[in-house]
Amino acid sequence: MSKLTINNLSKTYPNGVKALNNVSLEIGTGMFGLLGPNGAGKSSLMRTIATLQDADTGTITLDDLDVSKNKQEIREKLGYLPQDFGLYPRINAEVMLDHIAQMKGVGNKSDRKYLVESLLNKVNLYSHRKKGLGTYSGGMRQRFGIAQALVGDPSLIIVDEPTAGLDPSERNRFYNLLSEIGENTIVILSTHIVEDVTTLCSNMAIICEGEVLMQGKPKEGIESLEGRIYKKAIQKDELNEYKSTYNVISTKLIEGKLSLRVESEQNPENGFEPAKADLEDVYFSQISKKVDPITL
Ligand SMILES: Nc1ncnc2c1ncn2[C@@H]1O[C@H](COP(=O)(O)OP(=O)(O)OP(=O)(O)O)[C@@H](O)[C@H]1O
């Protein structure tokens, strides 16, 4: 059982942006969701774990290995699907994977052939193996991204915002693929999409403005809000009034009316109804400590 330990990690970019502020996390095998809004610091953290940049202070260890001092060894154990995943458009999937396998040290040609075939089957791209990567749809590109991340049997896999832009059926397909690989490996899924974490992750953290606001099991987060969430449909122009009176954590437009969700120890009355807490409530409740999550 591998374990990734992040201790008091901080990073300020030369332009003065503090992207990571004393981040500490413990991540074991299985699917771990790192959830946060745009600009929260997720990619900065992923890039640091992936040895692509250094933090100013703090440490990351994978089992007993200090990541910043053993970059080459970490890279050999790492599969990474970055947010901006560049592809050579004219090269086909089979040739590209063969090349990546060669770079990762699979020297024997028949071993590589077997590996490439099994990876293409795993991500359901075998029938498209001869097509140029530039012709792939968004979902196919992401599935190819997973295939390349799996070369070398990594003990740590990082996927950075992988489902953004995928249509619902491709997203489901991608979820199925990720859930299969999360069994014996540490998989960190960085995302701003709450549904990704609800669907896949047994452990999670919420990060905002470079700080970890919550970490634990999604279920525990939801339980902590049970009996504290109330909802009400209002007119759009009433929002500011409600925001000044209640702890509004989220709003959704439904058929032109605004459905509000508030967090409150007692029933606020005034037409509010109790609602079943979900992971989106946990997310908005946490990030509302740092930013105003309600923008119309
Ligand atoms: N190389 C860089 N130089 C300067 N500032 C940066 C750099 N990379 C990121 N930032 C800033 O650091 C903060 C955190 O960015 P980061 O990309 O880590 O967040 P994120 O959670 O991945 O966001 P997103 O979901 O938008 O990708 C942001 O304010 C961003 O503008």
From TrEMBL:
It comes from the Bacteria. PANTHER family: ABC TRANSPORTER, ATP-BINDING PROTEIN. This is ABC transporter ATP-binding protein. Keywords: ATP-binding, Nucleotide-binding, Transport. One of its GO terms (molecular function) is ATP binding. Residues 4-234 form the ABC transporter domain. It comes from Mangrovivirga halotolerans. Pfam families: ABC_tran. The keyword Transport applies. SUPFAM superfamilies: P-loop containing nucleoside triphosphate hydrolases. Belongs to the ABC transporter superfamily. CDD domains: ABC_drug_resistance_like.
